[in-house]
Write a structure and sequence with these properties.
The protein is an alpha+beta fold. The protein has helices at residues 25-33, 35-63, 81-95, 97-106, 111-116, 118-123, 129-159, 171-174, 180-199, 202-223, 278-287, 303-332, and strands at 231-234, 253-261, 266-268, 290-298. Strand 2 and strand 3 form a beta hairpin. The longest helix has 31 residues, at 129-159.
């Protein structure tokens, strides 16, 4: 005589038990495919922020005997060289981060799928190609924004006790604080993704992306100072020699300095520099009727405005690149 067994029913979950949040669907697929790059990015971000926090504590320990956070004099500047070098080296390293992210995350985001034929498999599924591309761009973009923002805030926090000594127009500070590192990273990574979709070869795309990113950084460095509105200050005209050049506000970046003649004409500060001695220089300046100085500079108060203007330009360029990537993926993914 045969016996029939009833199908087993899943055991009820214990009261109060909750399922842990987990990724699913296309989000899970994208994360799994690029998990090595994503976890590396997360780990390096955590390590970078921790290192910056440790270095900042050493800086504040140095400034404490001088009255930090309310420094009463500039005596601390004399022994600041070692800390300044640490800040400059860290800033230089951070300024290369967008290039590295473009090469190792941007270029390989879609290129391997196009090279190996994975994109054809995706195109044959129920998920649209645009949604697949959008998932990759959104997940990668969120991680990049979070990582670069944390590093940017941490580095600015490190500089904050000695901000008066920061070379704020240089890449080591301007491009690593505020919104600029986020905007620059997104732009270069988007460019890397586009290069990958065009070339369809991972290694070739990484090499081309590297050279494009370096070229973009050079162009950006030449553009940076033009984001602000310069201020010109001149000494009062007086009979005789020009005297001392005008004093500039604290933290101001001097763009150019010229002699001013009695008629208001500007002459380069190297005028008469080839004369044999100081007396000959004075005679030369008197002959030219040089009576003062004119100095053009950028005040540090414009730093935030310049950074947001530059970031806005980069965000617009990034949006244009993303639009091209999506349109190309929609029409010619495979």
């Amino acid at each position: 005589m045969s016996t029939m067994t009833e199908p087993r029913t899943p055991a009820a979950a214990p009261a109060g038990a909750t399922r842990r949040p987990h990724l699913s669907g296309m989000t899970w697929l994208v994360w799994r495919q690029h998990r090595a790059a994503y976890w590396t990015l997360i780990a390096l971000t955590v390590a970078g922020v921790a290192g910056i926090a440790w270095r900042r504590s050493a800086l504040t320990d140095y400034l404490a005997p001088y009255g930090w956070p309310h420094l009463k004099s500039d005596d601390w500047v004399q022994g600041f060289t070692a800390y300044s070098q640490q800040l400059s080296q860290a800033g230089l390293a951070l300024s290369f981060v967008p290039i590295l992210l473009a090469v190792f995350i941007g270029a390989p985001l879609l290129a391997p799928d196009l090279e190996n034929g994975t994109a054809k498999l995706i195109a044959a599924q129920s998920v649209s190609r645009v949604r697949w591309i959008a998932n990759k761009l959104v997940i990668t973009g969120l991680l990049l924004v979070i990582g670069t923002t944390l590093l940017s805030v941490a580095y600015a926090w490190w500089w904050e006790p000695a901000k008066s000594q920061a070379g704020w127009t240089e890449a080591g500070y301007f491009d690593t604080t505020g919104p600029v590192p986020v905007a620059l990273t997104l732009f270069l990574v988007a460019a890397g993704v586009l290069v990958g979709t065009l070339l369809r070869r991972t290694l070739t795309a990484m090499v081309v992306t590297f050279f494009f990113a370096v070229f973009s950084e050079v162009v950006w460095s030449l553009t940076r100072l033009h984001l602000g509105t310069s201020v010109t200050v001149a000494t009062h005209h007086a009979a005789g020699l020009p005297g001392q050049s005008p004093a500039l506000p604290a933290g101001a970046f001097e763009i150019d300095s010229n002699y001013v003649t009695g008629s208001g004409k500007l002459m380069g500060w190297g005028t008469c520099a080839k004369e044999a001695d100081e007396k000959a220089v004075e005679v030369c300046l008197r002959k030219l009727d040089v009576v003062g100085w004119s100095t053009e500079y950028l005040p540090i108060s414009q730093l935030s405005t310049m950074q947001w203007l530059g970031a806005g330009i980069l965000f617009v360029l990034t949006a244009a690149l993303v639009a091209v990537i999506v349109l190309r993926g929609r029409r010619r993914l495979v």
